[in-house]
Amino acid sequence: MIERVSWGGWPNCYRIQNGPLEAIVTSDIGPRILRFGFTNGPNLLLEIKADQGTTAEQGFVSRGGHRLWVAPEDAVGTYAPDNLPCDCYILDDMLQMTGSVEVGTGFRKQLRVRFDETGSLEIVHRLQNTMSWNVKASIWALTMMAPGGHGITGFPPRGTHPECLAPTNPLVMWAFTDLTDPRLTFTPLYLVLQQDQQYQHPFKLGHFNVDTWGAYLLGDELFLKRYRALTNLSYPDFGCSFEIFTNGVALELETLSPLTQIEPGNWLEHVEYWSLRRKHNVVNWNNASIDELLRGCQLTVPATSNP
């Protein structure tokens, strides 16, 4: 079901439901997903109250929620404002939001949102090059989570030495990454990062996994986003298909598409699948407890053709 609603001070929003779950997307700014959660339940996405209901600002406004950015990150192109109305198109069970061409970048951004036959929210991120020359870029799908939870991601399958001599994946640091950060927990199979509003220092790590996924446990609700990466293509930030970031405001789960030469007029696509279920809380973050937390979760996406 798709219906037009008012939400967060924006009058032109759309709720898409499959019964137990709902998402809300606005056409007043963006394209941006503002809410994802159980119907009548709390919002798993960050809400920045001071940024709600406003439009047409000259600079970038964080706002929260889920957005489409462009990587590699830079201070100008990545932070292009998305503060103008979008065109809305509804076709059966699919909601499409298309932004205007960005001044200064020449990109047009689009989100296509629907619940698939498995009950997952399928989000197709699309980036169009409206300029008259090729542009090399990556779609950066950035989900800002409500505060107070734990972000989780998994590494590619582990092995033993000397049986496995080749490296399996990068683990990428930023200049502000501190591996002694008390919010960070490593296990042999997983990385866990706590969002703590009392701890303001930014933290970020990235890695690559063909079966890219990130989860967020908030209370007894487990959010999961997943994406199929490709080993034969180049990714931003020393080869990252996934990045996780936190500060005192929120925690971000981020996936990235391959770096691609986008020809004039063409679109680049990047697809994520979201799910949400109620799980038990975790007391001790170790392999066994995370295995149990993820039991029954679909962490993979079927292989698809190259972009």
List the defining traits of the structure above.
globular; Beta-galactosidase, Chain A, domain 5; 21 strands; 10-stranded antiparallel beta sheet; 307 residues; mainly beta
Describe the 3D structure.
The chain is mainly beta. The chain has one domain: Distorted Sandwich (Beta-galactosidase, Chain A, domain 5). It contains two helices and 21 strands. The strands form two sheets. Strands 1, 2, 3, 4, 5, 10, 12, 15, 18, 19 and 20 form an eleven-stranded antiparallel beta sheet that branches. A ten-stranded antiparallel beta sheet has the order 6-7-8-9-21-17-16-11-14-13, with helices on one face. The mean pLDDT is 96.
Secondary structure layout:
Layout: E1 2-7, E2 10-17, E3 21-26, E4 32-38, E5 66-71, E6 87-91, E7 94-98, E8 107-115, E9 121-129, E10 135-145, E11 150-154, E12 171-173, E13 184-186, E14 190-194, E15 203-207, E16 211-218, E17 221-228, H1 236-239, E18 242-246, E19 251-256, E20 260-262, E21 267-278, H2 287-294
